[in-house]
Amino acid sequence: MLDEYLVMLEEAKKRDHRKIGKEMELFMFSERVGKGLPIWLPKGTDMRLRLENFLKRIQAQYGYQQVITPHIGHKQLYVTSGHYAKYGKDSFQPIHTPDEGEEYMLKPMNCPHHCEIYARKPHSYKDLPIRLAEFGTVYRYEQSGELHGLTRVRSFTQDDAHIFCRPDQVKGEFLRVMDIILTVFRTFNFENYDAQISLRHKTDRAKYIGSDENWERAERAIIEACEEKGLKARIEYGEAAFYGPKLDFMVKDAIGRSWQLGTIQVDYNLPERFNLEYTGTDNEKHRPVMIHRAPFGSMERFVAVLIEHTAGHFPLWLTPTQVAILPISEKFVGYANQLKQEFYLNDVRATVDDRSEKIGRKIRDAEISHIPYLLIVGEKETAEGTVSVRRQGQGDQGSMTKEDFIRKIQQEVADMLKNA
Amino acid sequence: MIKITFPDGAVKEYNAGITAQEIAESISPRLAKEVLACSVNEEVRELNYPIYEDATLKLHKWEDDEAKHAFWHTSAHLLAEALQELYPGIQFGIGPAIENGFYYDVLLPEGQVIKEGDFDTISNKMTELARLGEPLVKKQIAKQDALDFFKEHGQTLKLELINELADGTISTYTQGPFTDLCRGPHLVSTEAIKAVKVTAVSAAFWRGDAKRETLTRVYGISFPKK
After folding, report:
1. Average pLDDT, chain B
2. Would you kindly state where each structural domain of chain B is located, as residue ranges?
3. How far apart are CA A398 and CA A408, in angstroms?
4. Which residues of A touch B221 (CB under 8 A)?
5. Cys-Cys link to B155, which of A21, A217, B150, B193 (CB 3.0-4.6 A)?
6. According to CATH, what is the number of the domain A323-416?
């Protein structure tokens, strides 16, 4: 057991996302900008936007609408949400303006803004569920000693969404969100996962906001939804957030470590505090239920986990550079650049190694950079319009026309994303 | 006689004062060997905790988080015992079990540091002490007595912790020459700790306060099998 653990520790060091993130030029930190504030470099940004688009496409199918809200909100917004009372002291402190008495907070969560969107106009039971999604950047102050790479930061972007629904729709919405999360896991080959249902502490309940009745209902809905999905879920008493019970998905990575990724949280509290309503079939005003969910958790954290799970060998559809074109000598750089351009027009991301290095060196360097496909081009290839293909970890794949290669990549990517 | 209800719903009767260890032995010798901790009425307890009333009982083997937690908590005490021997005059902060292993925050005597090169020495000392199979003995202690005891032993950091506790709720655990302020739960002895290694060292502020002393945080991992 100890030996296996030590091997795992060694492997973990090699996969440290901070190390790989730096080597692959995905993100950086700057003392001058400030600790815990990740800066995404072009290649990392490319990946992140691709991840966002991936999720946006899935969510559109499930009836989500994207919104965009400001990074700050009046302190009063967070007094209303109850967040200020609970966390104000440990947060970034209010921002003052030249106007006396005006105080804003950096938003620590997106929910209050979304509540305002819901409250914009009256709703009928027929309008529900309303699903608002936002890749919302939030800011939470963490002690500098607690900061760690992308997994504990002071600014992060959640793949956030809030569902406003009728009480009778809670379980259905829960099941639909679980489908989204499981689709994400399938696409990334996260096969090893389990779930945790976080309920209130059995006896010490002072810190929980909201009525007992609502809590009972929500806790039951989560347990039933898990049973129906056949999801093996562990129940943890005392782990619920102060405003509601939740369901967390813990994924086991390639070296056996557990990471909390997707989260689904029922919230009976915010609709109370923001006085959200809808008109029921009885023509009376009712309180909608709010469900918060984040399949990735946050872009930062998800990318960190992905890096450590794949050790930088990202799936073909996601990796910043899919193809390295390696001309054997200067003479073939022209053809190589032509290929790169043609690939670009067909959504295949390539780079050309036009250095005057030996081909063996180019191959090695491309492999170290985790680029999945290597195309060797020389006399024959330039004359015939073909490429000589090598696949990382699978060796020589033979020669093919550039058109066939493009089709091959596109098909491979399409197959990987067929669930989305 | 008391009624013990097991997780599968089975109910068995035993003499009052029975311990989870004895119950495990009555079920199977294999189980008795593998069990590390127990939950009596949903509260984690040592295997030698006497049960006097009807209760639910869950026996925890290594696979259970509760077992790992108690195992690594005891390992933290083992680490402290080793450090106390290797660095006389050392002061102890807090030493909890964590998700994967344990750590102990310590204030080393003037001029002393713990570096990576020292890990093996500490690990070996821990292995040596674990083999002694010293039992962990829990004692309830009055607040003033606790203050006197730890003051006598030069443990000023512990005094701060004791001052925040209510009289009547304070307990200590002793194994061999080492006594710690602790609520438990623990293993019944260090014998189960068959493989242990110090894995890292870092710095930490006492009470997480940047204005307080900087302590040395020694991380370790341990297992019931090599």
Report:
1. 94
2. 2-61, 67-223
3. 13
4. 2, 5
5. B150
6. 3.40.50.800
Q: Identify all chain A residues contacting B103, using CB atoms and an 8 Å cutoff.
A: none
With 80 as the cut, is the pLDDT of residue A24 above it?
yes
A1 and B195 in contact by Cβ < 8 A?
yes
Question: Is A70 part of the contact surface with chain B (CB cutoff 8 Å)?
Answer: no
Q: Is A213 on the interface with B (CB under 8 A)?
A: no
CATH of domain A2-71+107-310: 3.30.930.10
Share of chain B above pLDDT 90, in %: 93
- Which CATH code is given to the segment(s) B67-223? 3.30.980.10
Q: Each residue of B29-82: pLDDT tens digit?
A: 999 999 999 999 989 999 999 999 999 999 999 999 999 999 999 999 999 999
| pLDDT higher than 90, residue B187 | yes
Q: From chain B, pick out residues whose CB is under 8 angstroms from the CB of A9.
A: 199
Residue pairs spanning A and B at CB distance below 8 A: 24
The nearest alpha carbon in chain A to B64 belongs to A234
Residues B55-59: contacts with CB under 8 Å, at least 24 apart: B55/B2, B55/B4, B55/B5, B56/B4, B56/B5, B56/B6, B56/B7, B57/B4, B57/B5, B57/B6, B57/B20, B57/B23, B58/B6, B58/B7, B59/B20, B59/B23, B59/B24, B59/B31, B59/B35
How far B157 CA lies from chain A's nearest CA (Å)?
21
Report yes or no: A13 at the B interface, CB cutoff 8 Å. no
Confidence of residue B202 (pLDDT cuts 50, 70, 90): very high
CA atoms within 13 A on the CB side of A275: 5
User: In this predicted model, what pLDDT tens digit does every residue of A68-115 receive, in sequence order?
Assistant: 999 999 999 999 998 898 788 888 999 999 988 899 999 999 999 999
Q: Which residues pair with A222 in a beta bridge?
A: none
* ipTM of the prediction greater than 0.95, yes or no: no
CA-based nearest distance A201→chain B, Å: 12
CB of A3 within 8 Å of a chain B CB? The answer is yes
